[in-house]
Specification:
With 252 residues, the protein is an alpha/beta fold. 21% of the residues lie in helices and 31% in strands. It is built from six helices and 15 strands. The strands form three sheets. Strands 1, 6, 7, 8, 10, 11, 12 and 13 form an eight-stranded mixed sheet that branches. It has a five-stranded antiparallel sheet with strand order 2-3-4-5-9, with helices on one face. It is globular.
C-alpha cells in the first residue's frame, strides 16, 4: 500500500481570483496532468498494474517549458521559514510573498503548506516522449519540470553553501493535484533541490494544491494523448495507454 504523507498541522487557504492560467494541474491522487499555457507537458499516474506502480511522461520539446513561464525570486532563496525540530513542519508563508508565481496559476482556491520533505524522497526526471516508471515506496516524489540535473553549477554550489551554513533554508515550490497527493510537479527550485541532495539534507518544500481537485477534462486528455503519442513502443507505451484508458474525464 502506498504510504501517504500525514496531513500537515499547519496550512493556509487563499484565492487566486485573477490567475492567468499559465500553470494548471488537473487530476487527483491517482494521477495528474500539468498544463502550461493550456498544453499538456507532464503526466504522472498510477500505471494500473498494482497499487505501487507509478509512471511519469513528458511531451515533446516543441511545447512550452516551465523555464519560460516561471517566476524566480530572491525571496525563495531564504524565505525565513523555520521547520519545527521534531515535526519538520513550518508555518506557511504569506501568499503575497509568492504572488508573482501564484498569478500564473489557474484561478481558484488553493491550499498551501510548508515543511521539510520526508527522508524517503524520490526525484523523477521525465524525458521528452519517454515513460519513466518507478516503484512508489517513497513518501514523496517530485517530478522535475526543468533541466535535471541543473546546468548552473555555480548556483547549486551557492545554495549548498547556504544549506551547510545552517542559516535560512532555501525553499522549493511544488504543485500537487490534491493536498494529500504524494507526487507533485516541481515548479521552482531545481538548483536548490540539487544542492540539498549534494548536502545530504532534507529539502524545505512549499506545497500548493487546489482545494477542490480539478477532474481530467476530455479535451485536455485528447491533447495529452497526441502530445505523448510518440512514446517508445513496448511495455512503456502499454503502461501509458493503460493510464489514458483508465482515466475518468468530465466533458470539455
Amino acid at each position: 500500500m502506498i504510504r501517504r504523507p500525514s496531513p500537515p498541522s499547519r496550512s493556509s487557504c487563499f484565492d487566486v481570483p485573477d490567475g492567468h492560467g499559465v500553470i494548471e494541474v488537473i487530476g487527483d491522487e491517482e494521477g495528474s496532468l500539468l498544463l502550461l499555457a493550456g498544453e499538456p507537458v507532464v503526466l504522472e499516474a498510477n500505471d494500473g498494474c498494482g497499487s505501487l506502480g507509478w509512471l511519469a511522461a513528458r511531451a515533446g520539446t516543441g511545447g512550452p517549458g516551465l523555464s519560460d513561464v516561471k517566476y524566480l525570486t530572491e525571496w525563495l532563496g531564504a524565505p525565513g521559514l523555520v521547520p519545527h525540530p521534531q515535526t519538520g513542519q513550518a508555518e506557511p508563508p504569506d501568499p503575497e510573498c509568492l504572488r508573482p508565481l501564484l498569478s500564473l496559476l489557474a484561478p481558484g482556491r488553493y491550499v498551501m503548506t510548508a515543511g521539510l520533505a520526508p527522508h524517503d524522497l524520490r526525484v523523477v526526471r521525465p524525458r521528452a516522449l519517454q515513460v519513466q516508471s518507478w516503484y512508489a515506496d517513497e513518501e514523496l516524489a517530485l517530478v522535475t519540470t526543468d533541466a535535471w540535473p541543473p546546468r548552473d553549477h555555480r548556483a547549486v554550489r551557492g545554495y549548498g553553501d547556504r544549506i551547510r551554513a545552517g542559516g535560512g533554508l532555501p525553499a522549493l515550490v511544488a504543485l500537487f493535484p490534491t493536498a494529500g497527493s504524494s507526487v507533485g510537479h516541481l515548479l521552482d527550485g531545481h538548483h536548490k533541490l540539487a544542492a540539498y541532495e549534494r548536502a545530504g539534507a532534507r529539502p524545505l518544500v512549499i506545497r500548493l494544491a487546489p482545494q477542490e481537485p480539478r477532474p481530467f477534462r476530455r479535451d485536455a486528455l485528447d491533447r495529452a494523448r497526441a502530445a505523448f503519442s510518440n512514446s517508445a513502443p513496448g511495455p512503456q507505451g502499454d503502461a501509458l495507454g493503460r493510464v489514458f484508458s483508465s482515466l475518468r474525464t468530465e466533458p470539455a
